[in-house]
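Onboarding guide, step 5: your first structure request.
Type a short instruction followed by the sequence, for example:

Predict the 3D structure of this protein.
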Amino acid sequence: MTVAIALVAAMLLGVGFVLQQRAAGEAPKAFFLRLALFAELLRQRRWLAGLAIMIMGQLASAYSVSHIDLSLAEPLLSTNLLFALALAVPLSGQRLRAIELAGAVILLGGVAALSVARIATAPAASFASPAGWLAAAVIAGIAAAFLQAGRLCSGQARATFTGVAAGLVFGISDALTRQTVQILDNHGLGALLRTWPGYSVVGAGLVGLWLMESAFNASELRASLPAISAAEPAAGIVLGVVVFGDAIRTSPTMIAVQIIGIIALVLGVVLVARASVLSDLRRKSTEALHRGGHPGTADWIATHSVTMAHTLRHRDSQDGKAPKVTKPAATKTSSHGPSGV
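The system replies with structure tokens like these:
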């Protein structure tokens, strides 16, 4: 049942990501990492719809990460990329290629491999432990390094580096969510309001959202979504093992399965997210913007402008008049150059 909820969360996240990126991609590039980006997006119904769907997905994922190991929950949630691909197909009007379908199969195989290799255990530690703080600090430092790299780049490189930073922060948020739900289940809402994890998960979620929207704004979806989808489970798995004591089978066979699963997960994410249907979303969105939100507006204006010009020339020829052509005013010159100099 919990696995099914995780897959529903992945579906909602994938749909929310596509809708948000289509809106963020239309915002001015000067809004990268600026709060003005949120002010712009809050006026767009498409982005608000995508945000609402993503929040529902986050609530479902919060239940998932609190009831199964992060080592399993994170790979399952990373399948949001498959649902994003499914939505992108009708929006872009393109068909899936064989390599993209192969990427989907590889991704699902990686998720299955990591699921087989895990052992469900009760949490052995929390973020109050030194190991928890150290692991989170290291991941946050890596995220800051990728963010700085994104600031120094532009285009797809900026979107990729910023997407990695967003994914790492979301991984920390997932781990904090797990502890928050544990406090809520064991001690109630009053205890949650008196402790720091609940407030920390809100803060981490907002930072992750800010970075994600900036990554969406920087370039097309295929440059940012694979980075987010790969970095988030990586951070979540590390924190699940180091902080919460998630057990991983260590027999030679299971270690090999885990290695293959991780490689398949990363490779599948890259292959699916680099699909042409994801890159074509940005072009479709730009065309819609230039048409003023109506598919035929631009074509109608262009056609009727030409028709009007021909009509005017025909009328002038019937009146015995040549079409008037406005010539630019001649610039007076002297031996010293243009007048006034």
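Each response can be followed by summary notes, for example: Residues 2-290 form one domain.
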